[in-house]
Design a protein that fits this description.
By secondary structure, the chain is an alpha/beta fold. The protein has 4 helices and 6 strands, in the order βαββαβαββα.
């Protein structure tokens, strides 16, 4: 199962990844990896995932499985090139480099809130978010710390792949 958080064995198809403050690194990494991995799962033959309405065949057609990210403060700076390049080396792509701030109304359109940061307490959302909260507690690092970025990307990738695997096994 997952490290540093609790997760009940329930399938949810709308995922919101939230980072510590700015939506420039950890949540962007989680969003890029999740969207790539879930596409692989959905497009793989004979691995349908069911939701409330029936079987989901393709991520891009029905938009039932979504991962987006935002920060509690946001930032005027976009995702650093160092992060983008490391993700690209691993076969992942950041679709939206610009940072985004959490929309307190839209957040309840999602089933799961995954806090990818060690410095955002889930209690911050106790009155505003009604779904399940998962906390990965991943530390931040400077955008010039390539070794640190790679370590955190690997940690996020492991957590995301476990989440996708759990979705597959639960379907």
């Amino acid at each position: 199962m997952f490290k540093n958080h609790t997760y009940q064995h329930t399938i949810h198809f709308s995922v919101w990844f939230l980072t510590c403050k700015h939506n420039r690194f950890r949540s962007k990494v989680a969003e890029a990896i999740f969207n790539t991995e879930i596409k692989k799962l959905i497009s793989a033959p004979k691995t349908p995932i069911k939701n409330k309405e029936g079987v989901l065949d393709e991520l891009n057609k029905n938009k039932k499985i979504i991962a987006e990210s935002a920060g509690i403060i946001g930032s005027e700076n976009s995702t650093p090139d160092s992060v983008i390049n490391i993700l690209k080396e691993k076969g992942y792509e950041v679709k939206r480099k610009a940072a985004k701030r959490v929309d307190s109304i839209k957040i309840n359109d999602y089933d799961i809130l995954i806090i990818t940061a060690d410095n955002v307490d889930p209690l911050f959302f106790k009155d505003s978010f009604k779904g399940k909260i998962i906390w990965w507690k991943i530390s931040d690092c400077m955008d010039t710390d390539i070794k640190g970025i790679k370590k955190r990307v690997n940690e996020i990738e492991e957590n995301v792949k476990e989440l996708v695997k759990d979705l597959k096994e639960s379907s």
